[in-house]
Amino acid sequence: IDAIADAIEQSMKKGHISTLILLTLEKGPSHGYNLMQIIKDDTYGVWNPTASSLYPHLSSLTEKGLIEFTTEMEGKRERKVYHITQKGKKTLKKIIERQQNMRKSLLSMIMSTIGITDSHIPNDFESLFGPELLEDTSLVGKTKNEKLEILSKRKLVISKIGDKLQNVANEIDQRIESLKADGK
């Protein structure tokens, strides 16, 4: 089971490399090796592209006109420094919009699989943390039992989010301590 899940995860990661390259280059020009390091650092090691996985994506993005490069000399070596183009910026904006929609639909599917529907989740993120949660219009017209079910499932969702946020906070603490210990 782990091997199957790992293979699916690797496939999903490959699909995001081009997006990660565009996101990185939107911050500023970079050469290939530096791109690999930035992607690894910015994703906390979740994505750790190798040269053999990165350079085909750079070639493809260049062919599509989404990035371009200039050649600079570093010692006796030539090095390509990549830049995002206007077309690349516009494409990146569309990719981000589409990925947000995909993430939202995937989350909806996962939630429905565990028995939580959109009516159990407020429309906006801020409502999760304010009094609006209890006054949500999705409760209007519901029976007492329906309201109890919706609010119970919302509480479950919020508890799971809280647990996840606590795990993330703990990981951040570990990274902070690791960075302090490195002395960098």
From TrEMBL:
Family matches, as InterPro entries: Tscrpt_reg_PadR_N, WH-like_DNA-bd_sf, WH_DNA-bd_sf
Pfam families: PadR
Sequence ranges assigned to domain Transcription regulator PadR N-terminal in this UniProt record: 21-94
SUPFAM superfamilies per UniProt: Winged helix' DNA-binding domain (SSF46785)
This protein's name: Transcription regulator PadR N-terminal domain-containing protein
